[in-house]
Amino acid sequence: MIPLLLWILSPSFPWQGRHGEQEILASVLFILASITDGLDGYLARRRSQITTMGMLLDPIADKVMVTGALIALVAYNPQVVKVWIAVVIIGREFLISGLRSIASSEGFTIQASDLGKLKTVVQIVSVVSATLAHGWDEWHFGLLVVPVKWIAVAAIYFTVLVSTVSAVDYFIGFWKQIDHASKDRRKASVMKRG
Asked: What is the spatial distance between Cα 71 and Cα 82, in angstroms, rounded to a whole number?
């Protein structure tokens, strides 16, 4: 779905119109990709079909999806998704991937925290709202006015905040586990000598 999403958000997409077809199609596709990703994880846990390959590939697929969408949105809607915002969010994803890789080589895993799960939901909302804000500043439903662009900007900045806080949380969890693992190695090394 990622290449299709990038094509829809590109200037070469053939169905660009004043009625927001491009934005709605991209948003629906991103939401469907997010739902299928969440459903896949849920079913794997529920059926006890969690594999090492799945634990490695699922976060990578998530990161590619969000990274691709953010990079496309920097070009598609630069008023909402600034370059520095994409760099912070994408940088966080690389940092966590690196920590998970080191943890795996040390023989332990870093589980997704509640903050990490919140970050994922906030990212989905921010990508969808930033996509829709390209076509609309506001939606009017009689007396009700939905400030689409304001929601997109707020969601993007909230994503930066949650991404940063969850990165610190992951790093602290990683540090505790790596420190514990190195103490165990030192203890085992002393016992072998003794």
From this structure: 10
